[in-house]
Amino acid sequence: MPSALADKSINPGHPPKPDNPDNHFPASPAPASFSVSLSDLNARLATYLSPEDMVRVGEAYLFSQAAHSGQMRVSGDPYISHPLAVAAGLADWHLDVQALSAALLHDVMEDTDITKEQLTERFGKGVADLVDGVSKIDRIEHQSFEEAQADNFRKMLLAMARDVRVILIKLADRRHNMQTLGSMRPDKRRRIARETLDIYAPIANRLGLNALYRELQELAFCHGQPMRYRVLEKAVKKARGNRREVVNKILEAIRTTLPSAGLDAEVMGREKHLYGIYRKMREKQLSFSQVLDIYGFRIVVKNRSSCYLALGALHALYPPVPGKFKDYIAIPKANGYQSLHTTLIGPFGTPVEIQIRTAEMHNVAESGVASHWLYKEDHKISQLQQKTHQWLQSLIELQSDSGTASEFLEHVKVDLFPSEVYVFSPKGKIFALPRGATAVDFAYAVHTDIGDRCVACRINFETSPLRTELKNGDRVEIITAPHAAPNPAWLSYVKSARARFRIRHFLKTQQNEESVALGERLLAHALHEMGVSPAKILPAAWDRFKKESGVRSKRAVLSDIGLGKRLPAIVARRLAEGLDVPATNLTANPPRARQAILIRGTEGIAVQLGKCCRPIPGDPIVGLIRKEQGLVVHTHDCPVLAKLRSERGNWVDVAWDVLPDHLFDVTIRVIVKNARGLLARLAKGIADSNANIIDVSVEDDRDSTMLYFTVQVTDRVHLARILRALRRVPEVLRLARYINPKN
Questions:
Q1: Most CB within 10 Å of its CB: which of 118, 185, 540, 641?
Q2: Where are the alpha helices (DSSP H) in 421-550?
Q3: Is it the case that residue 705 has pLDDT exceeding 70?
């Protein structure tokens, strides 16, 4: 490094963290400020960079120091201490010169007057692109802080998809910010801690950076819930002393057993992190005294076969807990993690968690995708890089079809949680899915077309509902139909981001097509009432309307009409301006033969039958244009309509034009005297009327029972036949069609 880069130690004087008295178990990293001197960074870089590369990094340091001259952090430290700490974190991963330079420069575009063009000219396009990927978007254009944050995340994640070094810089940046968070206001500390737990820690986990993942969780727990952190920290220190004898006994037994089995192994004790203990207590509703397994052991052996030999030796030493064995070597996690996990019953009934892995697996487990730079000779790293690349490309796919930044961030959040269910296709291919995933999630994991057209599934050769939760080792076969389509109800139980996104995308596309068709019908209806034929509306009139309204296309206008965002009468009047139409027709709706919009009951999303009154053919009906819902059809006496008299301008004439044999849902309320076998007799009466029951619910009272049957009928005549059949049952006191004004 040039002489200008002599050691300039930047140390605000924070006391060193005390060592754990039990040297077998390094203590959880207590959140504290973190400082790095320039000589410390130089020493790390000298282990793997050439002198020429160190000079280039030095130039970036000098540039950043000059740009941030006079700036101070909230803690009172010189601002340059932060980029220096971020670069030191990347040096621990052996990142290249471009990434190190970008780390030193990562705040100059955001906090100084330096532009991307200046960085490109001085340091090259690669460094400038990395800095730009980490930099935030200007918040002036956003309506809220949340929208700005969502846009910032979207920009960062898409930049990460193009170059994974962007997120490595951002994660190192977030780690140092968390380590120095104590200087912030309490409310800001809590918000940043929550953001770290929700976004940055899961990203670190998804990239296999387990050491960083645990540290971010620990720091976020400390700053987000400081009282609970301190109480739990005190309890763990106390337990450490109480359980030391048991732990040392287990450690000695393992270290004796493995060599006697011919295994050369490194045995390390590890204490669970406080956030891991807290999460277990919260999820399983346990007190601290009930969490016995706060200690675990990690065993590192020479090769893969030795992992299984060590497992056998340990199971002979202490009995294993049934159902607590996981083989992540044969089936690695999505982030490339590989280890054998088992839980043993140690002395005095103490549960002991054991992880067994090779040195190469340990490197990947701790460093994840950063192992690409740390251990380039490891051929398994390329597989991890490939998996990471596939995930990053899926982010670009999500972005291309997501409507808003918030929606994109929601999909990414779902995808960030670890995949823990491993299932097999009929051909034996393994698929990793989130916990709680269903057969629909599996279908979309195989292929989008399979998901869109699935109608049933077989799990372990048995026909099962699509909402069935999958378990490890399940064999799943999806049954498809050519004309099937995603069901909106699937959104209530799918777990994977891919499935949720694809279902929503299909429904939005379908809604758009239907709303355009409905908008065209509504506009034609409004024009007819004015005495204007739709054919008379020339392209010039549409061009004028689009220009005045600021819309992009005719389809967009029709879609807005169909979704209730624009009133068809107003659009019709503006389009008819300049035509030879009487003025009275443009200002009022004259009495004219109205053309009712025909309702078939099969329109789908843009035309909906009200869930309150459930209209069926034969009912007098009224249509109502509702914003974001389209055309909603109600019976003329529906109580919901009485509440919407102020929206009469949105009411539309509708009439039935039903296809033969099409079925409609209707609910019947039956009040009965309770008697043995009554439900069966009522169901038989409905079945004998050639109707299908799709739902039954019961409300009990002292004197009587109220039953609600949702049945499928063709029209009012069919419903009347069902009611007559039910009246013949002696125990029936009263019955009527049920309308629920709350829906």
A1: 641
A2: 439-446, 448-453, 497-529, 539-549
A3: yes
- Could you tell me the CA-to-CA distances from 658 to 165, 602, 663, 690 in Å, in that order? 59, 9, 10, 19
What's phi and psi for 368, nearest 5 deg?
Answer: 55, -130
Predicted TM-score (pTM) of the model is 0.60
Q: Helix, strand or coil for residue 76?
A: coil
Average pLDDT across the chain, whole number: 80
Q: What is the dihedral of CA 343, 345, 348, 354, to 10 degrees?
A: -30
Cβ proximity of 719 and 737 under 8 Å: yes
Q: Token pair 């270290």 is at which residue?
A: 255
Going by DSSP bridges, is the β-strand pair 597-599/654-656 parallel, antiparallel, or unpaired?
parallel
**CA dihedral for 365, 367, 371, 377, sign (positive or negative):** negative
Where would I find the beta strands (DSSP E) of 225-363? Answer: 266-271, 295-301, 326-327, 340-345, 351-358
Lowest mean pLDDT segment, chosen from 458-472, 542-556, 642-656: 642-656
Q: What's the pLDDT tens digit per position in 64-99?
A: 999 998 898 888 889 999 999 999 988 888 888 999
Q: What is the mean pLDDT of residues 584-611?
A: 61
Q: Is the model more confident about 623 or about 158?
A: 623
Other C-beta atoms within 10 Å of 424: how many? 16
Q: Report the alpha-carbon distance of residue 154 to residue 396 in Å, rounded.
A: 10
**Strand-pair partners of 676:** none
Q: Provide the 10 A C-beta neighbour count for residue 191.
A: 16
Asked whether the predicted pLDDT for residue 334 surpasses 80, the reply is: no
Q: Judge whether 110 counts as a catalytic residue.
A: yes
Amino acid residing at 81: S
Give the C-alpha distances (Å, rounded to integers) separating 510 from 302, 489, 629, 630. Answer: 56, 15, 13, 13
- Tell me which of 53, 96, 110, 477 is the catalytic residue: 110
Catalytic residue among 7, 92, 111, 198: 111
Any idea which of 314-318, 418-422, 448-452, 631-635 has the lowest mean pLDDT?
Answer: 418-422
